[in-house]
Records
---
Amino acid sequence: MKITGKCCICGGKYVNYGKNSAPIKSGRCCADCETKFVIPAKIREICKATLKRQRKIAEREFDSMLDSMTKWLEARKNANEKTAKNCSDSLNLYDEIDF
Ligand SMILES: [Zn+2]
């Protein structure tokens, strides 16, 4: 194997082209640093992005549910059973549930 560079993370030597050190640093790193630092950092970034996306989806779903719930309660208050039924259907509420 031919040594071609210095790892930008540990300062050791890497072989061939080394590994991409992003998102830890910009530059090339050794295979050990890729395993110890770069891959875990990439996994953390993916997890963070996934959580952020899921939070946005959950917020949208919550807003939509709250909107339907509000309409349902208003309709019930106004004794508009047809609208109440449509709203409760959209919330997947069962008829047995009575507030
Ligand atoms: Zn290294």
---
Amino acid sequence: CVCVCVCVALPVRSGRKTFNKLLVVSFDGFRWDYDQDADTPNLDKLAQEGVKAKYITPPMITMTSPSHFTTITGRWIEDHGVVHNLMFNATSKQMFSHKATQNRSEWWDNGVMPLWITAQNQGLKTASFHYPGGGANYSGQAVNRALVESYTHPDSNETEWRENIDIVMGWFSQEDFDFVTLYYGEPDNVGHRKGPETVERKEIIRQIDHTIGYLIEAIHKHNLTHRLNVIITSDHGMTTIKKIPEVQEIKLSNYLAFSKLVDFHLLDYGGFGMITPKQGKEEEVYNALVNAHPNLTVYRKGEIPESFHLAKNSRIQPIVVVGDLGFNMNSRFIFYVNKGDHGFHNGEMDMKTIFRAFGPDFKKNYLAEPFDSVNIYPLMCRLLGVTPAPNNGSLSFTEGMLVDSFDPAPTTPAILMSFILVATMVFCIFLM
Ligand SMILES: *[C@@H]1O[C@H](CO)[C@@H](O)[C@H](O)[C@H]1NC(C)=O
Ligand SMILES: *[C@@H]1O[C@H](CO)[C@@H](O)[C@H](O)[C@H]1NC(C)=O
Ligand SMILES: *[C@@H]1O[C@H](CO)[C@@H](O)[C@H](O)[C@H]1NC(C)=O
Ligand SMILES: *[C@@H]1O[C@H](CO)[C@@H](O)[C@H](O)[C@H]1NC(C)=O
Ligand SMILES: *[C@@H]1O[C@H](CO)[C@@H](O)[C@H](O)[C@H]1NC(C)=O
Ligand SMILES: *[C@@H]1O[C@H](CO)[C@@H](O)[C@H](O)[C@H]1NC(C)=O
Ligand SMILES: *[C@@H]1O[C@H](CO)[C@@H](O)[C@H](O)[C@H]1NC(C)=O
Ligand SMILES: [Zn+2]
């Protein structure tokens, strides 16, 4: 009987072990073509040794927290509910900064499970290093290990970048973590401050490329080459903000009497904005804006195009405004702080971002056609052997990236595995 137990239980346990580990690295605001005008030997080498997508399309809204959360949940923004970088309450008028939201579960935990939690519930060990949403609890569950970016965290210290890689490599090699997400705040920061078409942006891309070289070395050094898959991606692109005299900038107070008509707004935050009209003033707000400026599009919540996958969420305010590429949604003043910005329509090439992948389960020298970032989720699940939660992605866009020998048999869900194990034990006890 002991013999039967061991024989039946072994293949069940070892089924899990055939899946390799996964690291997802996100470089915030890495536009799809940033590697084309800067010297990037390591990224170029990776294209030979792994997978490169021509570009990927972030969800609409092309903003950091909403887009990162779509990647880690595989859900459209209207489903996962993280509709902005700022946490806000249109009734109390309270607002919290992007960094302040990071450990506020009530902003992130809206009934949709990010992959960390789903994977943990199926027996995997997961961690988040500064990745948006990693610091929150989901239905009371925390990510096994989560580091949240401090308010004073430097965005571009290359030494610190390398230290973070060393820490993550230690998590994989010494503590047997299965899935880690690692986030860097560049090149977004430089793209905003200096603009995407500057020497400073090319400089930070070179720094990112060095760091990717360091990552590849670190993987070898920790003997993870044959058991760690890596995805390098980002959340949105970046475009140069258009200014006078080249264009007439959009300042909404030129068309809209804020104090009379507007109760609350999320403007002055790139190309996308939301307005909460005062009671009964919705039509007045809409009419004031609908023909105000040729490069401004205004939507009533009920008329937001279905393709945005936005309107369903209660956090979306009654009026949504989107600028043409490079036209920021300014309210009463124009703050000339950002030379570059995002938030614009995800169909614009400047909003597209990167996808690279390498490791034992990925083909080499494989150029993938463009796809939506919502499809990264089922790929991650497949790589980890995790049964996905309900999601809006499809494996059909990415499965061609995997080596032909990859896991031909469908994954046995963890619950089924536990059931087989328990059933076997019960059967053995019965025999005894
Ligand atoms: C928003 O603020 C209002 C007024 O203070 C409060 O009643 C409501 O519960 C808040 N909503 C959320 C989701 O916290
Ligand atoms: C998550 O839950 C733990 C345990 O209940 C709690 O100590 C912690 O403060 C919570 N964190 C957040 C960000 O809500
Ligand atoms: C979030 O972090 C801030 C400071 O970093 C801290 O004051 C606050 O208590 C934390 N909140 C939660 C829910 O952990
Ligand atoms: C960069 O990070 C390293 C390691 O964390 C630290 O020793 C160094 O002081 C930092 N440099 C700057 C300029 O902040
Ligand atoms: C590296 O990993 C491989 C496969 O897991 C193993 O066979 C080998 O012994 C390891 N080498 C070292 C130096 O740890
Ligand atoms: C701004 O609007 C004008 C007039 O419709 C149009 O010709 C121009 O292409 C628009 N600019 C952008 C960046 O879409
Ligand atoms: C996204 O997925 C969820 C969960 O399966 C589903 O309820 C929702 O209808 C999907 N959204 C779209 C636009 O298909
Ligand atoms: Zn971002």
